[in-house]
Design goal:
The protein is an alpha/beta fold and 254 residues long. The chain has helices at 18-34, 38-48, 62-65, 68-79, 85-101, 109-118, 131-141, 164-173, 187-195, 211-214, 227-231; strands at 6-9, 50-51, 56-57, 122-126, 149-151, 180-184, 199-203, 219-221. The strands form 2 sheets. It has a 6-stranded parallel sheet, with helices on both faces. A two-stranded antiparallel sheet has the order 2-3. The longest helix is centred in the first third of the chain and has 17 residues, at 18-34.
């Protein structure tokens, strides 16, 4: 895997701890949208496959891999509302605020991306989160300046599992499909990579079962911290030897 020219990162479950970030964030958003109506909150929790007491999602949740364009209509129905563009934007805004408040990185994403960038790799993010939300979180993690592009479900290239956002990055920056790898934790990431002709690196840090993905991945790593040792010359120190990412406002170390 040392012949790559670009690496594209999924965000949630790959760079950001899904349950520790979105578990409490979802609880806050559900309380806000239900306005103190316990029955409405229970309906939102049910269609989201969300365990309120544990502040986490079941692997079957439509929120684990989908965007508000996917689960938003379910939420609108649960609340007796219409899934208008304004309603979906409201969901994105509330999740952006609460996601930033509870943002929890996996490992040392800033140190990892700095090493990969220094090693000559072009870097990007491909996520089913809204682009604005993803950019805010990238800035909080200190990696925004390391990314050539951030593609969200609403950027204009479609959402995963479609290959549009991966293919658009290749075309914009002139990368051969076989020289690009997508790093992710889900079948959506695998499908997006394969659909664009890219390679797929599976991380074991997401909330979804991995059994069906292990034999499909080109490389399997425990976390993004393992990537420099796998993708760069051995002369570079592994990210695990570097100081941890400093925990700042709105950011909790894992």
């Amino acid at each position: 895997m040392r012949d790559l020219t670009a690496v594209l990162f999924d965000k949630d479950g790959t760079l950001v701890h899904f349950d520790r970030t979105w578990g409490p964030a979802a609880g806050a958003v559900i309380r806000s949208l239900s306005g103190g109506d316990g029955a409405a909150a229970a309906r939102l929790e049910a269609v989201s496959h969300y365990l309120a007491d544990a502040e986490r999602f079941l692997p079957t949740s439509p929120l684990v891999s989908g965007s508000s364009a996917h689960y938003g209509p379910l939420w609108a129905q649960a609340l007796g509302r219409t899934a208008t563009a304004d309603f979906l934007a409201l969901i994105d805004r509330l999740f952006a605020e609460e996601g930033l408040r509870h943002l929890t990185p996996i490992g040392r994403p800033k140190a990892v991306l700095e090493q990969l960038k220094a090693g000559g790799l072009d870097l990007g993010m491909v996520t089913n989160d809204a682009e604005a939300n993803a950019r805010q979180q990238a800035q909080a993690l200190g990696i925004d300046g390391l990314l050539s592009a951030v593609h969200g479900y609403d950027t204009g290239f479609g959402s995963k599992p479609g290959p549009g956002m991966v293919r658009a990055f290749m075309e914009r920056f002139g990368h051969r499909p076989g020289a690009v790898a997508v790093v992710g934790d889900s079948a959506h990431d695998l499908a997006a990579a394969r659909g664009a002709g890219a390679r797929f690196i599976l991380v074991r840090t997401g909330p979804m079962p991995l059994a069906d993905l292990l034999c499909e991945a080109d490389l399997v790593v425990d976390s993004v911290d393992d990537l420099p040792a796998q993708l760069l010359p051995r002369a570079l120190p592994p990210a695990s030897t570097l100081p941890p990412h400093p925990a700042g406002k709105g950011l909790r170390a894992r």
